[in-house]
Amino acid sequence: MNPFTYTRPADAAAAIHEAAHAGARYLGGGTNLVDLMREGVERPAALVDVTGLDRTITELPDGGLRIGAAISNTALAADRRVRTRYPMLTRAIVAGASAQIRNMATLGGNLLQRTRCLYFYDDAARCNKRQPGSGCDALEGFNRMHAILGASDACVATHPSDLCVALAALDATVHLEGADGKRALPFEALHRLPGDTPERETELRPGELITAIELPALPMARRSTYRKVRDRASYAFALVSVAAALEIEDGTIKDVRVALGGVAHKPWRARTVEALLRGQQPSEEVFRRASAGELSSARPLRDNGFKVELARRTIVAVLSQLAGGRP
């Protein structure tokens, strides 16, 4: 048993103060961190419970929303403003876990959940993310669930979050607070690709706390959806997922947002798809060419080559659904 202290600060400033102690970790719903503690992967010396911090959803002057990081996934998905203005976000949250887990999990914790790679959880396996410099057994092991985009020789793990895929597509902003004050990051800049340092998963500074997520006013997001392809409908992480929004004007694609899950070390914003589609007339053939362009840089492993075609077909299916006016 790894001994640890537990505190439940009343505000962000107190939480940041408590987290300054060596080995401290912020605790949200615990749906990932507590699992990792049970497996011995995480051994914090102190837990700083932040579930009592801001969990409100606030209207912004431009029509966007500011969401407190302590809000539960259930409350976020059920909010009428989120359901109507950003349906892809609600769909991603509901696809992400059972109702019981959604009741416990928090928005901030979801952003920071760690990979579900089997080798990361197995302390008998080599894992550069868990023990830098030890190697990566997934490269030559069972790698059906692993990355096809943005991976490296140091790590081929995928990011497990569904919610984060939608936030990447929505151009969200992450609000942070730490010992050096407050700052904001574009959501796409929060998570890192593995490179040679897969143990560094985000751009957060030591002791920094996620306080809120801001969603911009994005009228096109009302015409958006999220599709998750997995081995079974419950308790399974994505093989491939797609969050997308589409704006069509006078028969032409005026704007589009696409992000992918299950294919990379971070939520993957499909910038190539978006660039190739703007100004085009929507059709399955156009969607196929755009998705092929995005996936031209894919580097599949021994067991996950099927993900390339699966991702292409899922992108085409989702965009065709939106182009046809179906939610």
From TrEMBL:
**Which InterPro entries does the record cross-reference, listed alphabetically?**
CO_DH_flav_C, CO_DH_flav_C_dom_sf, Diverse_Substr_Oxidored, FAD-bd_PCMH, FAD-bd_PCMH-like_sf, FAD-bd_PCMH_sub1, FAD-bd_PCMH_sub2, Mopterin_DH_FAD-bd
The cross-references to SMART domains, in alphabetical order and at most eight, read: CO_deh_flav_C
Q: A single GO molecular function, which one?
A: FAD binding
Q: Which Pfam families match?
A: CO_deh_flav_C, FAD_binding_5
Q: What is the lineage of its organism?
A: Bacteria, Pseudomonadati, Pseudomonadota, Alphaproteobacteria, Hyphomicrobiales
What is the protein's name according to its record? Oxidoreductase
- Give the stretches traversing the membrane: none
Per UniProt, residues of the FAD-binding PCMH-type domain are: 1-220
What top-level branch of life does the organism fall under? Bacteria
Keywords attached to this Swiss-Prot or TrEMBL record, sorted alphabetically, are: FAD, Flavoprotein
